[in-house]
């Protein structure tokens, strides 16, 4: 059940998605504390995620996952690898 | 690699233990109900509904976390105490707020007994994310009642939630309610009255080594003490997983268990490096399953939110609308609050005039009128601004716009290491730092909040304006520079910019030194838009204003009286003959009036005013404050200030604008204001008695204005920082830091200017 970083060419960083694009969370990395917070908010591998929009200055980004919308900075979204679909 | 585990099997005696709760203990006090829930779930609205106006707000000991408690009457005539816990996504704490939530719910919070019942509020319209907290809470093994809030909205949106299924799954009452309309509250109150059996933990999967570690710790837990009525397995998991800065839970268990937990963590780190991820991943598996079974969307999701967001977070319109909102807030703080503040001012002085004659002339009258009543006035004048700011902030927060504003401003505020949430408190501080500092409670990160509090007083507040106006009017020539700019206006603009620059530099420095720490996760929920409930908004406004008056007000009042004393004592010997003369002049004025000699009466009256001003001047110059002004002269002489300005600096601690009236008193002008020509003239032409030269130069005026931009001279700010940080350390640090900065900057301006041959 431990998610492994994939070498699949499709895998992207979350922040690289275009506005409106959908993907599935593949892997989350980071220091234990930050990693735990992201997982608790539902950024669990296998979760469908949508990049709703970018803020007027390009950063942060608005995400939708598990029926909730979140604002997250691109520097933090870089910790999340996703598979677009 | 992982095996399914029934948690009920792990700790078979949970319910037994909970029922064994000491009955005598229960009977001696009111039942305590803790309200828990995620941010934006309507928890506070429900709390306000249940408790009505019977609330009290305090701080948890040693932290800045607010403790909101109230009493809720039940149908039987009994009353239960209700505690509104801070909103949290998880029981594994990552912030002081969340530490408090965990400690209260596990019964290790020192000033709060273990709650008899937890009322968990869930927003039915976005259940999935909120069930995480629910899973953890259920696992504690203490009685829980689930309030399924916003069921009316869920119905409208075509979202069906199977409450009976949730009830069967959790083994806890699940009651559909709407905190806004009040539906379902009767059933909720009834449930609060009953003895609720502890819930049934939901099955989840955990890796074998983690499961074994947790079981090992669970087996070691003592069967008495604060944690004994909880599910052992949950306590064990909490001990293993809660590795934050705070160790209140670790301190609650014997040292042998502490050592074992540390050893097991090291073992797990070696065996499965990602073991910490197993709890959330396991919980979400169960949640996904539960959501599939318990919810049904019968209408496609509406796009109302999307349509609003498309405008409010639009690349061009988003910032424009935000600026428009800010303009309204700014306007309200500066302009709309002003008539109310004037009315309060008028009311307070009228009160003084009304009460004054009833008291014997002399020290007692002066203490009551100039000390106490003026001090109360100083407190109450802040209330309109606080009320206006919190009216807007709670409207923005409850409607969901505040999160969008932070979303828009985040990139900009990141430049100084803060988040978008810091913008509104800082902007409000241009009107007054008091409401601005109070508004920082919308910033959830502790370090960011402290940084914002400490830099807020650098924003040039409205109390500095009279000082700037007096000094610019007296010393800055009214001429045009660079063809279009008006020099006084340019100077005023530079003063505002200087304050902002100082704030940026100090924020930058603080974030790299005293307030350095792990980079927090700036993930913020963008909640759905909702129509705010007036009730909640008004309760917030009332709470904030009330708290300010109670907590900061007492400090301000005390300091006002001390300042009054310092400015009135000791009485000068020269004053006596002057007072006698004043009496004589007043009598002759009365006589002249009585005899109809109007011209003579007017002349005598004018003389009396002149004498009164002289008495005030002489008394102040020789009072403790006056002596202190002279005492600090050597320290402020390098900045270009003499002892008269020293007195004004000291007295401006009551409020910055008091500087103007103090200068007027020092120059025997009575109560002049910043537009008074005579005060400007006096300042411009004042001579140094030792050299006979002009005492003040434009350079000194610039130095003094720079000092006013940077110095912390406002006791109300200090009092409110004390209240908001729940410590004396931070306000003291702020006073020292700001005043040191002010001294250095003024020194650089004055001495640098002299070297360049200015002044």
Strand arrangement in the largest pleated sheet of chain B: 3-4-5-2-6-7-9
Supply the number of structural domains of chain A. 1
CATH fold field value of chain A: SH3 type barrels
Shape of chain A: globular
The CATH topology name of the domain at 2-203 and 275-294 in chain B reads Rossmann fold
What is the percent of helical residues of chain B?
Answer: 55-70%
Tell me the β content of chain A. Answer: 35-45%
- List SSEs of chain A in N-to-C order: EEHEEEHE
**Low-confidence stretches of chain B at least 5 residues in length (pLDDT < 50)?**
1-26
Derived from helix and strand composition plus strand pairing, the structural class of chain A reads alpha+beta
- Tell me the major beta sheet of chain A: 6 strands, antiparallel
Distance between the termini of chain A: 22 Å
What is the residue-mean pLDDT of chain A, rounded to a whole number?
86
CATH H-level superfamily of the domain at 2-203 and 275-294 in chain B: P-loop containing nucleotide triphosphate hydrolases
From the alpha-carbon coordinates, what is the Rg of chain A to the nearest angstrom? 12 Å
- CATH class assignment of the domain at 2-203 and 275-294 in chain B: Alpha Beta
CATH superfamily of chain A: Ferrous iron transport protein A (FeoA)
Could you explain how this protein is built, in words?
The complex is a heterodimer of chains A (85) and B (759). The two termini of chain A are 22 Å apart. Chain A has one domain: Ferrous iron transport protein A (FeoA) (SH3 type barrels, Roll). Chain A is built from two helices and six strands; from the N terminus they run E-E-H-E-E-E-H-E. Chain A is 15% helix and 36% strand. Chain A is of the alpha+beta class. Chain B is 61% helix and 8% strand. Mean pLDDT of chain B is 83; it is low at 1-26. In chain B, a hairpin with a 3-residue loop joins strand 12 (480-481) and strand 13. A seven-stranded mixed sheet of chain B has the order 3-4-5-2-6-7-9, with helices on both faces. A two-stranded antiparallel sheet of chain B has the order 1-10. Chain B has a two-stranded antiparallel ribbon with strand order 8-11. In chain B, helix 10 runs antiparallel to helix 13 (255-271) and helix 18 (383-399) runs antiparallel to helix 25 (534-568). Chain B has 759 residues and is of the alpha/beta class. The interface between A and B is large, with 35 and 47 residues. Strand 5 (68-72) of chain A pairs antiparallel with strand 14 (524-525) of chain B, so a sheet runs across the interface.
């Amino acid at each position: 059940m431990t998610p492994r970083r994939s070498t699949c060419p499709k895998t992207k960083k979350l922040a690289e998605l275009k506005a409106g694009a959908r993907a599935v969370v593949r892997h989350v990395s980071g220091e234990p504390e930050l990693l735990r917070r992201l997982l608790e908010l539902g950024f669990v591998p296998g979760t469908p995620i949508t990049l709703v929009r970018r803020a007027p200055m390009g950063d942060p980004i608005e995400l939708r996952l598990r029926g909730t919308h979140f604002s997250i900075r691109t520097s933090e979204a870089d910790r999340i690898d996703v598979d677009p679909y | 690699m992982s095996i399914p585990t029934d948690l009920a099997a792990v700790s078979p005696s949970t319910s037994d233990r909970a029922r064994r709760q000491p009955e005598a203990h229960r009977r001696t006090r009111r039942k305590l109900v803790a309200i828990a829930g995620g941010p934006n779930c309507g928890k506070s609205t429900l709390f306000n509904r249940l408790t009505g106006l019977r609330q009290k707000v305090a701080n948890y000991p040693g932290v800045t976390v607010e403790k909101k408690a109230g009493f809720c009457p039940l149908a039987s005539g009994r009353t239960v105490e209700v505690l509104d816990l801070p909103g949290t996504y998880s029981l594994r704490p990552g912030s002081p707020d969340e530490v408090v939530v965990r400690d209260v719910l596990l019964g290790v919070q020192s000033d709060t007994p273990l709650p008899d019942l937890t009322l968990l509020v869930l927003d039915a319209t976005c259940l999935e994310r909120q069930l995480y907290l629910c899973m953890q809470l259920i696992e504690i093994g203490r009685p829980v009642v689930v309030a399924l809030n916003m069921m009316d909205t869920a119905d409208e949106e075509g979202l069906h939630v199977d409450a009976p299924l949730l009830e069967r799954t959790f083994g806890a009452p699940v009651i559909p309610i709407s905190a806004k309309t009040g539906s379902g509250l009767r059933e909720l109150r009834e449930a609060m009255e009953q003895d609720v059996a502890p819930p049934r933990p939901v099955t989840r999967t955990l890796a074998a080594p983690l499961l074994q570690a947790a079981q090992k710790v669970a087996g070691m837990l003592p069967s008495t003490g604060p944690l004994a009525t909880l599910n052992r397995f949950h306590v064990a998991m909490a001990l293993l997983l809660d590795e934050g800065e705070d160790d209140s839970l670790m301190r609650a268990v014997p040292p042998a268990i502490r050592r074992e937990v540390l050893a097991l963590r090291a073992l797990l780190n070696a065996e499965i490096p990602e073991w910490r991820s197993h709890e959330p991943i396991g919980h979400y598996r169960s949640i996904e399953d539960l959501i599939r079974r318990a919810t049904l969307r019968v209408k496609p999701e509406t796009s109302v939110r999307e349509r609003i967001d498309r405008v409010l977070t639009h690349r061009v319109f988003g910032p424009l609308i935000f600026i428009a909102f800010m303009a309204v807030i700014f306007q309200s703080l500066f302009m709309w609050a002003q008539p109310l503040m004037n009315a309060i001012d008028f009311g307070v002085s009228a009160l003084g005039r009304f009460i004054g004659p009833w008291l014997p002339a002399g020290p007692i009258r002066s203490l009551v009128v100039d000390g106490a009543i003026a001090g109360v006035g100083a407190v109450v004048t802040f209330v309109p601004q606080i009320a206006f700011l919190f009216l807007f902030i709670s409207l923005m927060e409850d409607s969901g716009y505040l999160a969008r504003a932070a979303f828009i401003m985040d990139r900009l505020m990141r430049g100084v290491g803060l988040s978008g949430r810091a913008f509104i408190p800082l902007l409000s501080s241009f009107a007054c730092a008091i409401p601005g500092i109070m508004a920082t409670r919308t910033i959830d990160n502790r370090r960011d909040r402290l940084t914002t509090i400490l830099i807020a007083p650098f924003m040039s507040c409205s109390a500095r304006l009279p000082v700037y106006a007096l000094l610019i009017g007296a010393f800055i020539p009214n001429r045009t520079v660079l063809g279009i700019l008006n020099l006084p206006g340019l100077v005023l603009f530079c003063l505002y910019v200087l304050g902002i620059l100082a704030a940026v530099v100090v924020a930058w420095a603080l974030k790299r030194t005293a307030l350095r720490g792990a980079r927090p996760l700036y993930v913020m929920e963008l909640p759905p838009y909702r129509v705010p409930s007036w009730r909640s908004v008004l309760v917030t406004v009332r709470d904030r204003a009330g708290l300010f008056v109670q907590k900061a007000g007492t400090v301000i009042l005390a300091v006002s009286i001390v300042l009054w004393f310092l400015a009135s004592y000791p009485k000068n010997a020269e004053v006596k003959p002057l007072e006698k003369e004043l009496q004589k002049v007043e009598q002759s004025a009365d006589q002249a009036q009585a005899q109809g000699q109007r011209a003579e009466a007017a002349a005598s009256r004018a003389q009396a005013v002149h004498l009164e001003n002289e008495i005030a001047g002489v008394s102040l110059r020789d009072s403790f404050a006056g002596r202190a002004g002279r005492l600090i002269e050597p320290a402020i002489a390098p900045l270009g200030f003499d002892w008269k300005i020293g007195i004004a600096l000291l007295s401006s601690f009551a409020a910055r604008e008091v500087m103007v009236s103090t200068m007027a008193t020092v120059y025997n002008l009575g109560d002049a204001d910043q537009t008074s020509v005579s005060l400007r003239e006096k300042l411009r032409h004042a001579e140094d008695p030792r050299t006979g030269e002009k005492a003040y130069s434009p350079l000194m005026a610039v130095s003094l204005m720079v000092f006013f931009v940077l110095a912390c001279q406002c006791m109300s700010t200090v009092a409110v920082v004390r209240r908001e940080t729940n410590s004396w350390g931070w306000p003291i640090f702020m006073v020292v830091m700001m005043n040191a900065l002010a001294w250095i900057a003024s020194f650089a301006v004055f001495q640098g200017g002299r070297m360049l041959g200015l002044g």
